[in-house]
Amino acid sequence: MELDGPDLAQLRRGVVQHCVLALLDEEPLYSYDLVTALAEHPPLVTSEGTIYPLLSRLRRDGLVTTQMREGDAGPPRRYYELTHEGRHRLAAFRTVWVAFRAATDAVLHTQDDR
Amino acid sequence: MMTASNPLVTAWLDRVRLLSAELPPADRAELLADLEDHLSVALPPGVSDQETAAVLARLGDPADIVGAAGGDTWLGAPAGPAPSAAGDRATTGPGREGLTLGLLVVAGLTVVVWPVAVVVWIAAVVLLVTRTRWRGGEVVVALLVPIGTAMAVLAPLAGFVVVGSTCVSVDGGPEVCDGASGLAAALPLGAFALLLAATVTAAVWLLRRVRDRPV
Q1: Among A8, A50, A68, A80, the residue to mutate for chain B (most B Cβ within 10 A)
Q2: Which of A24, B19, B131, B139 suits A40 as a labelling partner, its CA being 20 to 30 A distant?
Q3: Rounded to two decimals, what is the model's pTM?
Q4: Cα dist. B22→B51, B66, B70, B71, B148 in Å?
Q5: Could you read off the pLDDT of B129-183 as tens digits, one per residue?
């Protein structure tokens, strides 16, 4: 039986937003590139479109900020970048995640013993 | 916008507009702008219908996307229940509602030991207000549960009092009740059954209301 629906949604909760922050760790990203990059990891998201509301929420929470940049052609594009608070949050999550993953693996017997 | 000329895209965006009518206007405008921008990049001029359909499929079901914008249910499953913005109360599932309901019932059942009933009732109301997903009318119905339960408990007791006063025992023989007392006994019994049914119905209704609600 595959884990899907509400169970998978529960699992994603609280994790995916930090994955977005991690994608922005290196450099600001155009929203389209950010969304398609995250969507390359299917377990993390339901669909590309559902990421946009998440980005809006991260901005409202002050973890990312946006700016419009002129492209080579076409209309200005919305770029996302981490705020100071976003960097702090990402660092904190990375620490927690390592412990969380280790604890879960230990309980589930899913350690990689290779 | 160039992409709007494709009927597939137009229909998809129309569905997003329709479903997002309830969102705050600023959120809705931002969502639509994001999606239109995405489509304008993903669908260069002259792209085939097949590729257009694939791009729309990757974007996802408009209902999911609007649901994601409507609250903290954005991770919701494609076949999930209608999203609600009311899911932000701290709960860990239907357990809180069940516990609250249980305490409300106990508060009613213990009405004859009123100090116990009062303590349990206060605990139940605190839980009800701070930890459950019930809102508005649901809270009112929940508050009626202990009253209904208490009256259901008191109705038969009242019946015994009435029956006791109209039944006589002559010289230690069998108790004899007159015709009127039969009716007097049936009335509290009927009230008891009615109150019990109403309370059980209310309880089931309350639990069903939160069953599909996001935690």
Answers
A1: A50
A2: B19
A3: 0.55
A4: 31, 9, 9, 12, 37
A5: 877 888 778 888 888 888 888 888 887 777 666 555 555 555 655 655 555 556 6
